[in-house]
Design goal:
Elements: E1 5-14, E2 19-21, E3 26-27, E4 31-48, E5 55-58, E6 61-62, H1 65-82, E7 87-95, H2 105-119, H3 126-136, E8 148-152, E9 161-166, E10 173-177, H4 188-198, H5 202-207, H6 209-221, H7 225-244, H8 255-269, E11 274-278, E12 284-288, H9 293-300, E13 309-312, E14 319-320
Parallel strand pairs: 5-7
Antiparallel strand pairs: 1-4, 1-14, 2-3, 4-7, 4-8, 5-6, 8-9, 10-12, 10-13, 11-12
Helix pairs in contact: 1-2, 1-3, 2-3, 6-7
The chain binds ligand DP6.
Amino acid sequence: MTKWTRAHTNIALIKYWGKENEQLIIPKNNSLSLTLDAFYTDTQVDFDDSLSEDLLILDGVEQDTASLKKVQRVLNEVRRQAGIESKARVESINHVPTAAGLASSASGLAALAGAASYAAGLSLNKEELSKLARIGSGSACRSIFGGFAEWVKGTDHDSSFAVPVDDAKWDIGMLFIVVNDAKKEVSSREGMKRTVETSPFYEGWLQSLDADLSAIKEAIKGKSVEKVGEIAERNALKMHATTLGANPPFTYWTSESMKAMDAVRELRKRGFTAYFTMDAGPNVKVICRQSELEQIKYYLLTSFSESQLIEAKPGPGLYLLD
Ligand code: DP6
């Protein structure tokens, strides 16, 4: 029994940054994200007795054992729940508009949770799918849902999963400014671990989160792009500030990221509702009104090329393809 399953990526407006339990991927704080239509992963899984090893084929290319690690955590949990031992063939296709390194583990691991549980004959509800995706990659647990979702941190495997917050069927959108950079990356997994362990700013980050979360939920209720953007931008800046205090220190920002952030501030001066957020890489995401996406893109074309600018609207949660 195999079926293609689709999950869209999500971008956190209140960031997940730090684990309480690394093995189970239980976070230090709740996070809140918006699932987007622009990037998604299609995955199908086949549990096959004739296989001697798990196989991962990504965009037609067989992956090495290192890339299989996150995938196998999900597969092992599915095998445990279904009481099967067969190895799996996982086929995944990332749909990303440019070859800009935006492929996301969030959509990938969420699609895998859906496809693998289906293939094993489990019928899991969204909460269970969210937990399953979480053990592959934390942020993936939010991609089970469309629109805004909150990952409630919980204390153990059964209490840590995402819940839907709002369908986002209103005038909010996002524009990705893709910054190409050759600099070696610190993965989000490594970056958050180092920050938790060594940054004196980490405590300050944690202390300010409850206020950010309740404020953004109010703003979402009021459908205020302005307030959502303002809170998300501040939250992102705080998260990125923690990395500068780490030992050894690091940053995901490049001069191109700074240029993009300045461009967003300039958009605000020109009267647009535009705020930025950034994750564990140099790309900048602009939070704005869907109805202003075109004009904002037009302005940004004065500093960036067409291929660097990708428009996104709120996207759906996980679903099986016919
Ligand atoms: C900065 O979910 O990639 O994007 O749980 O270790 O797989 P692991 O980390 P991951 O971290 C995402 C961090 C972030 C913020 C966010 O998405 O909330």
